[in-house]
Amino acid sequence: MNEKNNIVHDDEEFIRGMMQEARMKAPENLKYRIMHQIETENALKPQQTPVRLSERKVLKDFVGIFGLMYAVLAALIGGAYLLKGKEFALSSGFLWTVILVAFVFSFFWLMTRVDERLNDKRKGNHIPSK
Amino acid sequence: MNENERVQQVLSGKTSAFTYFVETYQDMAFTIAHRVCGNVQDAEDVVQESFVKVYRNLHTFRNESKFSSWLYRIVYNTAITHSKSKLWLYDQETSLSNVQEISDFDTETQIIDSERTEAVANVLNKMSKGEALLLTLYYLEDNPVKEIARITGLNESNVKVKLFRARQSFKELYARYERVIPDLQ
To answer: Which of B85, B73, B72, B2 is nearest to B36 (CA)?
Structure first.
């Protein structure tokens, strides 16, 4: 058994020794080719534009204005329902009130955007959309 | 600095840090590609393509396996795709009874290239590509069977069986080679 193990071990060592001769060497210029391609691709990759400050402000304004609008509407509807009853809350007169509130907030949002855009143009940092 | 830190460096935008991986692994990658493709030109293209793939997908590398195994698997797959070869078809394994006689080795070349390196290269070329690749992965890189299974997509017991056959073929072919060129030893 030991003898058999020794033979197997010898074979292993023999093949291992032989195989060390089989390692190939990559051509000298291959490394440069690879790095050159990677760097070229990197240079051509469109740079990620950081989210502009104004874009972040738009989101903040949007959440702020419409968040407040929904809060006002919820308070208005809740109050109407509790104080004047279900009929009043479902009446067309009250619906117009709700629409008016929504319109006022939307108009305010629109004005904010227009103002923002005019400001951007004035500062000359408006990035045209692609 | 370990490989993980180097990977992080590359991911943070320092492209030049990738040179380390190219320098360290290009020879073995080239050896694997050459074993599969069978010629230098294709092997070069495969290695280049593989390293670019590795660079692009570096963010997907998890430390569950060694970086080298991950890279070699990509090289292996790229080489297979490139050469459109199927390494593991049964009839492609070296059947010693079908191997042409040793006289088929180019005798003239043998006399000129009587060095061991050429002898081993000749023997490996006579073997099936799959078997030659397994020996390369097992003996050159000391990859355990598990890693070889990961690289080649075979299961472990399959790798063991094929490795056993590959060793037999190698020994047999080398012995025939020696008989022609006794000075080798």
So the answer is: B85
Q: Are residues B70 and B119 in the same domain?
A: no
- Classify the complex by whether its ipTM is higher than 0.85, answering yes or no: no
pLDDT at A37: 93
CB contact under 8 A, B124 and A22: yes
| Closest Cα in chain B, distance from residue A102 (Å) | 46
**Domain locations in chain A as residue ranges:** 2-44, 53-123
What is the domain-level CATH number for residue B79? 1.10.1740.10
**Poorest-pLDDT segment among A4-8, A22-26, A93-97, B154-158:** A4-8
Q: CATH number for the domain including B125?
A: 1.10.10
CA closest to B142 among chain A residues: A16
Q: Where would I find the beta strands (DSSP E) of A7-104? A: none
Together in a domain, B94 and B172: yes
pLDDT of residue A73: 92
| Domain housing B35 | 3-83
Distance CA B178, CA A29 (A): 36
Pair (B102, B28) in one structural domain: no
Q: How many CA atoms lie within 13 A of B84 on its CB side?
A: 0
The residue of chain A with its CA nearest to that of B116 is A21
pTM of the model: 0.63
B22 contacts A23? CB cut-off 8 A? no
Please compute the mean of the pLDDT values over residues A22-29 and round it to a whole number.
86
Instruction: Give, as one character, the DSSP assignment of residue B5.
Output: H
Residue that the structure tokens 């063991």 belong to? B160
Q: Measured between alpha carbons, how far is residue B72 from residues A90, B47, B52, B121, B136 in Å?
A: 70, 10, 13, 21, 12
A24 vs B contacts (CB less than 8 Å)? 27, 30-31, 34
The count of structural domains within chain B is 2
pLDDT, averaged per 10 consecutive residues of chain B (185 residues), comes to: 87 90 93 90 94 93 85 92 69 51 48 64 86 89 88 91 90 79 53
